[in-house]
Amino acid sequence: EDVDEAGGASKSSSKAKEAKGNVTVSVRVRPDVNGADSSRNDSEWLADGRRSLIAYRGKEAGDYYYDNVFTAHDQNAKVYDSAAKRLVRRVMEGYHGTVFAYGMTGTGKTFSMQGTATSPGVIPLAITDIFSFIRETPHREFLLRVSYLEIYNEKIHDLLSASAPNGGGAVQQEEIKLREDSKRGVYATPLKEEIVQSPTQLLRVIARGDHARRTGSTQFNARSSRSHAVVQIVVESRERAASGTSSQDKRSGIIPGGVRVSTLSLIDLAGSERAADDKERRTEGAHINKSLLTLGNIISKLSDAKDKNGNAADREGKHLPYRDSKLTRLLQPALSGNSLVSILCTVHLGSSANSGENLNTLKFAARAKNSIVSHAKRAEEAFSGGSQDPGSRVLLERYRVEI
Ligand code: ADP
Ligand code: MG
């Protein structure tokens, strides 16, 4: 195991990590109900944020090092800054990026991704950052589109579609399929994408999706813990025409550089716990486990590819079982190399009943750290040169974010 090497000495190696690391794996330990550090109540566990270490002294004892270990004292803002900010900014520069929250139900996935009014999570903080970046980059113009879907029992539901909140909610709508083409990669269709031009608008669209998710099920909590919630923000940008350029030139459409298209995916995964015993739960659980297991399988296979001969074909995903679940199929672009990935694993230590599940989460995180070899490259190449996507250009013309 080179676990220790991967995450050790967080301070001294942070520069090197930035240079080579397109995958960030973090573990967040949630506080106990009384606010206490949950790792302190249990002699089996020790969470050390400074050393990015979780030490386990139970049956399969081990020291687990990650890029970040967040303890009970760490706020959402710190989690965002250390585990997501860089990725979000890179998405604005044209790379694909995925943040996902992994862990058993009740460990803080939604708290970390959505946060609260006083302590906003990764999603609202990313939105703030996106618009800051746009303001700081006056020489480019940006177009933002957002979609919000849920994967439940291996079916995709559009949380922004008009039919979602009524007629029995998201359950009733037409089935959404995953397709693939050379230009867009893997995508869900028909899926509503909203064009947004301000942070308020973007937050409002996501709130609408959250609302649809709640009203679409009678038992929100049960369902939400068994479904994956996927927010995707597509960012298109291009150089603005130089200020000296005459309107004549603008009309002729001479714009330096291509249109960059990249996607930020923010994913609140289903609970990673094992299926309960009753029959319906078991079907749901089987689907959840299938997608999370496939995710784990892909990660470990990527690891094999890297360990043996760094086989590029495997890293590009040709032999990996992405198609085994909707989640991994949708995430294929994010995991097959052309993307930055940040995995936030949440655990609630201190309750020894959870030790097995927590250990599974920590192992998942450790495997991810050693395996995903991601060679991020800007999505611009595909769109540069003379053959820019005319659709993008028209949309950018009409809906670009004004600064
Ligand atoms: P999950 O989405 O993983 O099922 P939640 O995010 O809903 O878990 O968290 C479960 C409960 O614990 C919620 O009441 C949430 O507010 C609380 N919680 C989780 N993590 C933290 C944290 N780091 N600090 C304070 N409260 C937390
Ligand atoms: Mg949740």
From TrEMBL:
Localization annotation: Cytoplasm, Cytoskeleton
Limits of the Kinesin motor domain: 22-371
Binding site for ATP: 103-110
UniProt family annotation: Belongs to the TRAFAC class myosin-kinesin ATPase superfamily. Kinesin family.
General function of this protein: Required for assembly of the mitotic spindle.
Listed name of the protein: Kinesin-like protein
Source organism of the structure: Penicilliopsis zonata CBS 506.65
Included range, full protein: 205 to 607 of 966
